[in-house]
Amino acid sequence: MRYAVYVRVSTDKDEQVSSVENQVDICRYWIEKNGYEWDQNAVYFDDGISGTAWLERHAMQLILQKVRKNELDTVVFKSIHRLARDLKDALEIKEILLGHGVRLVTIEEGYDSYYEGNNDMKFEIYAMFAAQLPKTLSTSISAALSAKVRRGEHTGTIPFGYDRIDKKLIINEEEALLVKEMFDWYEDGRGYRMIANNLNKKGCRTRFGNLWSEASVKTIVTNSLYTGEHVMHKYKTVKVDGKKKTVKNPKEKWLVFENHHDAIISKEQWERINPVSGVKDKKTKSDYRNEFRGIVWCAHCGKRVRAIYAGVRSKYERVYMKCSTYKAYGTCVNHIPVRYEDFRNLILERLKQKQEYIETRLVAQIKDKLQEKIAKSKKTIKQLGSKKEKLLELYMDSFIDKETFINRNRKLEDEMTAQELQLLKLKDKDIQNRETKDIQDAFMLLQEEQDLHKAFQKLIKKIVFYQDGKLDIEYTFDY
């Protein structure tokens, strides 16, 4: 029987990694119990993967590659929970395996497609339980944390201005004086950067010895914890396009514990500074309607260049591109502001000049480049195969011992596996077509000036912003 054993852990922690042995032992017992010879090379292992779409799992893709080539008869898992936590993912993997006539076995649930036939209900029920398990654990953990908070205990990191003694927050008098100053200065109309600069000039540092920044000041001034309350369930984790993302819960879902610890500032001052509608607007707001977020960098200090909004709101009036280091600390020499609209128009003009190049040369160049990569990958696989043959000859001729042979052979197999997966991706016609289509679609958005953030992300890798206004643009399509 040609089989594969799939094992997975979701983190790189020792206690998780050690579970690999447990998964392998359980699968090995099933293999040998059913009269088959155990093959360690049939084990496929994905490690340290959490919140990742199954399509991106290296070992899983290798198994599916063999399935499509008709090189496997059976795939064995310790449990559906190891196969996939998401119901949709589990059903998709099952459909691929059974669609190619491959037997699917999950040992803990006692599911075996060979005996179940077309009975999908049993698998679906187990898959639903597997999907629900993390939510149940999360609810249990949340309940335990809530109980701790009700007892006046503090969970999480220790905020500036407090110490944790006997699991409870106790005011650190020296730090609390700085916290009070920050709130007072902010209420007097000083911005986050001015407060940070004042603290730094006085020689004050954060608890970790760092300079104060706009972000660190804002974290304190916008935190209701300093009024003595503790807030839980402020954020939640959701899955978007197969990836986990943290989003803010609606305020009505927050769990607020009043008088949880001693307050550093009064409720009245907090409400004056942070009205119900949100933190009071200051003179400057960052990343206001910034279509370039994440791709513009300062040539001097290497930090991000951000869109800084100032004054009365209008479409692009009084929005500037400015180095984030200068904005936070006032230290970068690259601080001459450039109007956002001028910057935007310049980038649009440069990109539109590139469109003719796209239509005439890019598609052919992408295909040529892919063929080069395919040839290189095939050559590497052939070289690795030759190395394995030579290594075997060395072992057979007693030039190296068994342990050395096994270790070197494993490394070569890992390299070959990685190259085979890379080759599979390169040969995927959908990937080739998608690469050119994405860029062409981005240029269409550019012409219509719609969803420019998406267009810029597809077309530009990086923009380096110099003090004299010079720009270096690195495009995604320069092959």
Automatic annotation (TrEMBL):
PROSITE patterns: RECOMBINASE_DNA_BIND, RECOMBINASES_3. Pfam families: Recombinase (PF07508), Resolvase (PF00239), Zn_ribbon_recom (PF13408). Residues 159-283 form the Recombinase domain. Residues 367-429 form a coiled coil. Keywords: Coiled coil. InterPro entries: DNA_bind_recomb_sf, DNA_bind_recombinase_dom, Resolv_N, Resolvase-like_N_sf, SSR_resolvase, Zn_ribbon_recom_dom. Residues 2-152 form the Resolvase/invertase-type recombinase catalytic domain. GO terms for molecular function: DNA binding; DNA strand exchange activity. This is Recombinase family protein. It comes from Bacillus thuringiensis.
